[in-house]
Structure formats: C-alpha cells, structure tokens
Amino acid sequence: MAEARKLYIKTYGCQMNVYDSERMAEALGGAGYVPTDTPDDADMILLNTCHIREKAAEKVYSELGRLKPLKAANPDLRIGVAGCVAQAEGEEIIRRQPLVDMVVGSQSYHHLPEMEARARRGERSVVTEFDEDKFDHLPGARSAGAPATRAPTAFLTVQEGCDKFCAFCVVPYTRGAEVSRPAERVLREARDLVARGVREITLLGQNVNAYHGEGPGGEWSLARLIRELAGVDGLERIRFTTSHPNDMTDDLIAAHGEVEKLMPYLHLPVQSGSDRILKAMNRKHTAEGYLRLIERLRAARPDILISGDFIVGFPGETDEDFEATMDLVRQVRYGQCYSFKYSARPGTPAAEREGVDPAAADERLQRLQALLNAQQREIQDAKVGTEQRVLFEKPGREPGQMVGKSEHLHAVHVTDSRARRGEIARVRITHGGRNSLGGEMVAG
Ligand code: SAH
Ligand code: SF4
Ligand code: F3S
Known about the structure:
Elements: E1 5-11, H1 15-29, E2 33-35, E3 44-49, H2 56-66, H3 68-73, E4 78-82, H4 83-89, H5 91-96, E5 102-105, H6 112-120, E6 125-127, H7 134-137, E7 153-157, E8 159-160, H8 171-174, E9 179-180, H9 183-195, E10 200-204, E11 212-215, E12 218-221, H10 222-229, E13 237-241, H11 250-258, E14 265-267, H12 275-280, H13 287-300, E15 305-312, H14 319-332, E16 336-341, H15 358-381, E17 387-395, E18 401-405, E19 411-415, E20 424-432, E21 437-441
Parallel strand pairs: 1-2, 1-3, 3-4, 4-5, 5-6, 7-10, 10-13, 14-15, 15-16, 19-21
Antiparallel strand pairs: 8-9, 11-12, 17-18, 17-20, 18-19, 20-21
Helix pairs in contact: 10-11, 11-13, 14-15
This protein binds S-adenosyl-L-homocysteine, iron/sulfur cluster and FE3-S4 cluster.
C-alpha cells in the first residue's frame, strides 16, 4: 500500500463546522489521507471557514498568504477552502489566491474525493451547489476513513440551514434552506458512535429544534428523536444546539422534565431584550414571550442552565433598548453566554441600515459582558459543596489529573487514579476557578 498522505484541517466557526471537518476527514480517508495535527508536514490543507462576522473573508485570505512558504517547500501540497466563506465567495477565492486548488461550499463535501483527484492532476475546482443532502453521499461512520474509536463526546448534525432570515444573519445564505436528516439515519449514526466509545451526543442544527425528519410513521419532531435516542444502550447523555425560541414546542419542553438522558442545559439565544429591536431583527417573538418560555422550561426542569447569544449595537438600538436587554439578562440569569457587537454582513437586510455610534456599541458590549460574566461565575461558584455527575473526557494539565463535564456543562477536574476517560462518576465539588471547578470523587 502506498504511504498515507497527510491531511490538516483548520476549523473555524460553529460546531456544525467541527462536525463537517470530521466528515471531510472521513471522506478523504477513503482517498488515502490520514489526519495530522500540524500544517507543516501536510500533503493537503483545508481551511473550514466561517462567515458570521466581519472581515471573515479577509481573514481567510491572510491565512492563505501565510501558507505560501509551505507550498514553496512542497509543490505537491494541495490547499482547499471549505465552509461558509467558500460558499459565499466561490470562484473569487481561486481568482484572488493562486495557491488554492479547491473551493468547496458547505453543502458540497461529498464532491471532495473527486475534487482531490482533479487537484492531483493539477486542475483547480470550485463546487458550491446546494443540490442535495450532502450527508446522503458522505461515507457512513463505519467507512474506511473513520477512526475505530472516538472521544467520549461527539457532535451529530441532524438539521442544516435556516429559513428564519434574521435581518443580521448570513446563515440562510451560506447554509441554504432548512433540511432535516431522516430519523433512522440519525439513529444509525448514533449507534455507530456509541459502538466506537461515544457516551454523549450533541445533536446539531442551525435551528435544531425545528427538526422534522422523516421517520417511521411520519415526520418526527426533535423531542421524538431524543426520546428514541434515549433508548440507545451505552449512550448516557443527550444535548442539542442551537434552538430558536419560536420552535420550543410543548413536547420538547416536556422532554426536558421526562427524559433522564437529556441534559439540563439549553442554549436559547434571544439577541436583544427590546421588542422594538427584536422586531427590527425579524426575530418574530417578544422579550416577554421569551421570558415566559424560560419560566415554562424551569417549571419542567428546575435546575436547567440557560445559555444565550446577544448582539449589541444593532442598527437603531438606543440606550433605552440596551437597558431592556440588561433587564432581560437580570431576569433570566444566564449560566453561559456569548455576546457580540453587531457586524454588518453584505447581502443581509440590516446591512442597508445606518449603524449606531461604534463607541456606544463598545461601551454597551463591555457592560453586558460584565453582567453576563458575573452571572456565569455566580452560577458556577454555587456548585461548590454540591455533588455533580461528571463524564471524564481527557487528562488535565496537572500530572494525574482528569477533566470532564458536569451535566450543566461545567468543566470539572479531579486528581484520582479511579477517574477513567469515558466514564461518569460522582464528584464532590471542593473549589471553583475562573473557568472550571475542582473536586474529589465520591466513593461507591
Ligand atoms: N442559529 C442560531 C445562531 C447562529 S449564529 C440562532 O438563531 O440563535 C451564532 C450567533 O452569532 C448568533 O446567535 C448571533 O448572536 C451572532 N451573530 C450572527 N450574525 C451576527 C452579526 N451580523 N453580527 C454580530 N453577531 C452576529
Ligand atoms: Fe441566523 Fe436567525 Fe437563522 Fe439563527 S435563526 S441561523 S440567527 S437567521
Ligand atoms: Fe459560521 Fe457558517 Fe457556522 S457562518 S457560525 S460556520 S454556519
């Protein structure tokens, strides 16, 4: 057999890109590539890009520029750009950067093996079509390119694309219309992951709770899929992300109270606490509607940890609008949050509108982040003295240390030879750090 070629993939953006990078590695595994952790000895480099915020394309071009010396040292090195910038820029990337052999949009990864073969012959190619469900054509989890064992946690994309068209967002353009994968394919993939050592699966979708995959007996909701997944032996934990408030159905809320394997954590972005801004963002819900939803979730599962996303400085946002966001945050009490300054994205409706004063946006972001950080820290520190169930994932930085995640997704470390990767253990939390908790294993 010929010596394996080495593949280096650099992944930017959301978890869906992380999942896609694994699928690309598997697809190219069939063409004789094995993954490597460094670009220096790679035969192929793929940049799996994100277009969500400003200067995304510029960053990709400068990253490509940095690969020049590697290409000079190894003329056989093949370079590809994948993901949402590839989808948005297409041909332009090949035109601007002679180093690039392949441009492959986020829905076209099943074309990679043939693109690779063309690249070997010195032909450059661009594929950015939206024609079909790429996962139907990508190799399954048991393919030649798939590793035999896996880390204890895995992502599994069940839904792609978005039909919501929030006024600021590029996703409906880069990922296309909403598509759900058939339920039986998802279940099969989940069973394969579990057979390879996975204990926790996070179901992914840009709008994962809008899932409506074809399944036995008709369309399945996300709640139905979760209930079925909970029956898979050896699978211990189920999570899902990202959800839209308007798709948070009664059966999904009920599942949070009833399905033991469904973890008490929900990422439910609201973006703003001002009804005026929510309307301008085309979010199609109010702040009050969101707050009622959180109440119902907490009634179903009292310890659920809520996480969110916020945008400050959206066009037209006044001080009063921003204060409404601060009020909403105080009412919800978030355990985890991501907040961003609005970034105008070409081609989206909001990009046409006049922006707010950048200094005001900076100041708002700082105030919001200070509040969110304080809430996060408070919720994390309140775990000190409690007992948590931790799924151990990997060795920690200190000798003999293992780190894992609690049900609320807090990082927890212990120093104990009984802590085994892939196992869930009870841990008494003894102290809190900036981004993690420390504890001791509870006997028995
Ligand atoms: N589907 C998810 C979000 C995907 S994008 C949802 O509906 O919540 C992840 C986050 O990036 C968004 O929640 C939003 O907070 C942020 N984001 C998206 N577009 C942005 C823009 N143009 N400027 C700043 N932040 C943005
Ligand atoms: Fe973007 Fe809105 Fe769709 Fe989320 S729901 S991906 S923010 S358009
Ligand atoms: Fe970025 Fe595309 Fe995900 S734009 S956030 S990589 S869907």
